[in-house]
Amino acid sequence: MSALIQLHEGETLLAGDLDYYPQAISPAHADPLFQQLLAELPWHSDRITVYGKEHTIPRLQCWLGDNGLAYTYSGKRLQTLPWHPHLLSMAQELQNLLQRPFNSVLCNRYRNGNDGMGWHADDEPELGPAPCIVSVSLGAERDFALRRKGETRQWGKLPLAHGSLVVMNSGMQSRWQHAVPKRAGIAAERINLTFRYLQPGH
């Protein structure tokens, strides 16, 4: 899958904290990749603890990466599963393009508009103090909502279309939160891939 990702015609937002590439992967590559990942990734439903209560998260997910990595998220300690070959190729391509290491990918599958993700920042200790995280969207277009940390008012949103890519640069997780709001009337599925570097030993 050489030259899958093309970082051109991008836009820098949030004073440099975020780079947005609406057409990073062409439909000719994105369409078969989407169908293959739907069929081949080990999707499962997880339960997380929020304010002391367990809830089933409103999406499917899986965590892939280098052997022996672990990640704690909302009270759950997740072990990485082996890389899917296409996702390993994407991680290596992103490393070459951005000159940043990526040793894991969190895959989220939004089955329809009833699935979503609440406000959060990816600021867990395993990610280090200033992580760079790359988000790739496949399938149905969904909004990527943004707000400043400590505020309740939404700053704005980006429509993440099929084949789009977002680079959340080193300062973003300390200053911003993001969410994927639920949306009535969306029947199609979406996959989101977030490539990141976990510090070994955490």
UniProtKB/TrEMBL annotation:
<protein>
    <submittedName>
        <fullName>Alpha-ketoglutarate-dependent dioxygenase AlkB</fullName>
    </submittedName>
</protein>
<dbReference type="GO" id="GO:0032451">
    <property type="term" value="F:demethylase activity"/>
</dbReference>
<dbReference type="GO" id="GO:0006307">
    <property type="term" value="P:DNA alkylation repair"/>
</dbReference>
<keyword id="KW-0408">Iron</keyword>
<keyword id="KW-0460">Magnesium</keyword>
<dbReference type="GO" id="GO:0140097">
    <property type="term" value="F:catalytic activity, acting on DNA"/>
</dbReference>
<dbReference type="GO" id="GO:0016705">
    <property type="term" value="F:oxidoreductase activity, acting on paired donors, with incorporation or reduction of molecular oxygen"/>
</dbReference>
<dbReference type="GO" id="GO:0051213">
    <property type="term" value="F:dioxygenase activity"/>
</dbReference>
<dbReference type="InterPro" id="IPR027450">
    <property type="entry name" value="AlkB-like"/>
</dbReference>
<dbReference type="InterPro" id="IPR032854">
    <property type="entry name" value="ALKBH3"/>
</dbReference>
<dbReference type="GO" id="GO:0016787">
    <property type="term" value="F:hydrolase activity"/>
</dbReference>
<feature type="domain" description="Fe2OG dioxygenase">
    <location>
        <begin position="101"/>
        <end position="199"/>
    </location>
</feature>
<dbReference type="InterPro" id="IPR005123">
    <property type="entry name" value="Oxoglu/Fe-dep_dioxygenase_dom"/>
</dbReference>
<dbReference type="Pfam" id="PF13532">
    <property type="entry name" value="2OG-FeII_Oxy_2"/>
</dbReference>
<dbReference type="InterPro" id="IPR037151">
    <property type="entry name" value="AlkB-like_sf"/>
</dbReference>
<keyword id="KW-0479">Metal-binding</keyword>
<keyword id="KW-0234">DNA repair</keyword>
<dbReference type="GO" id="GO:0046872">
    <property type="term" value="F:metal ion binding"/>
</dbReference>
<keyword id="KW-0560">Oxidoreductase</keyword>
<keyword id="KW-0227">DNA damage</keyword>
<keyword id="KW-0223">Dioxygenase</keyword>
